[in-house]
Write a structure and sequence with these properties.
By secondary structure, the chain is an alpha+beta fold. It has five helices and 15 strands. The protein folds into two domains: 149 residues, Cytidine Deaminase, domain 2; 118 residues, Alpha-Beta Plaits, CATH 3.30.70. Helix 4 packs antiparallel against helix 5. It is globular, with a radius of gyration of 21 Å.
Length: 277
């Protein structure tokens, strides 16, 4: 499965595996295929935007080989239901549609649509995401308020290596983490460091689940991406155990880094701390 992770200033935009699979399924590979499209829904965090839901084409939409026009009223209902079910967490993030070309280029109508949607919206966010699915590769861009041009976003690749962000509270204690990217320093099946880091992070999450009573947490996952955060540790009866498990995770990360350093591979992994609260 391909990963769709993009850089957007200091943030990242991540498309979940379920969304990626759905978008891939609508590629216009056959000549008789009409364009497809819909809306993007997801969550916005301080350092992250997660697209975790899309609407799919329906009989109310209009389409042809080279155009797609979604039904406005149906889209508004989908947005309202998603917002209510998530208690205001899941919101409208933008638009997606397909093009019958390998590497899609936005048309003037595409740019006009996303600009108008942003101009007419009453949301707290000041941007919208535009996704155009091509036969070979997608075009992902962001339209910001006050800007005329929809800005194409750079995609995270193996050249970026593995980026690990450890979230800290004001006392310097680890409360969670964000990991994105992947290592491409060995043939498939021999990538022991990808496996090692994966085991560290998923093992830490499973340990916190099974050894503590924590129920208030945030978990977002996609291919080559995971974010886990426990926001209210100090009010948990197991706070000491949770902090200890996070500290143990950090020690394991350091051990793998030290081994990689001996093999001159340490520059492929970046670890940073970030105050989230």
């Amino acid at each position: 499965m391909i990963n769709l992770i993009y850089k957007y200033g200091e943030k990242h935009i991540v498309f979940t595996d379920e969304v990626v699979n759905k978008l891939e399924s609508y590629k216009q590979k056959r000549k008789e295929q009409h364009e497809s499209g819909g809306i993007l829904l997801g969550k916005v965090y301080k350092d992250l935007i997660v697209v975790d839901t899309i609407s799919e084409p329906s009989i109310e939409d209009q389409s042809g080989r080279y155009f797609f026009k979604r039904d406005v009223q149906k889209a508004q209902k989908i947005i309202k239901v998603a917002w209510e079910k998530s208690r205001g967490e899941r919101i409208y993030l933008g638009e997606w549609h397909t093009h019958p070309e390998d590497n899609p280029i936005p048309s003037s109508d595409d740019s006009k649509l996303i600009n108008n949607m942003l101009k007419d919206s009453h949301m707290e966010i000041d941007f919208l995401v535009m996704v155009i699915i091509g036969i070979v590769s997608p075009h992902i861009a962001v339209q910001r308020k006050g800007q005329k041009i929809c800005e194409p976003l750079p995609r995270v690749s193996s050249k970026d290596g593995l980026k690990i962000i450890l979230y800290e509270n004001q006392q310097g204690k680890i409360m969670g983490f964000k990991v994105l990217g992947y290592l491409n320093i060995a043939p498939l099946g021999y990538d022991i460091y990808n496996a090692a880091f994966s085991q560290i992070f998923y093992g830490s999450i499973n340990s916190i689940y099974s050894l503590t009573g924590v129920t208030d947490y945030s978990l977002e996952k996609a291919s080559n991406f995971i974010r886990f955060f426990v926001p209210d540790i100090d009010n948990s009866k197991d706070k000491d155990k949770i902090y200890l498990l996070f500290e143990s995770m950090y020690i394991q990360i350091q051990m793998v880094q030290e081994e990689m350093q001996l093999k001159n591979l340490s520059n492929f992994v970046k670890v940073n701390f970030e105050k989230l609260i």
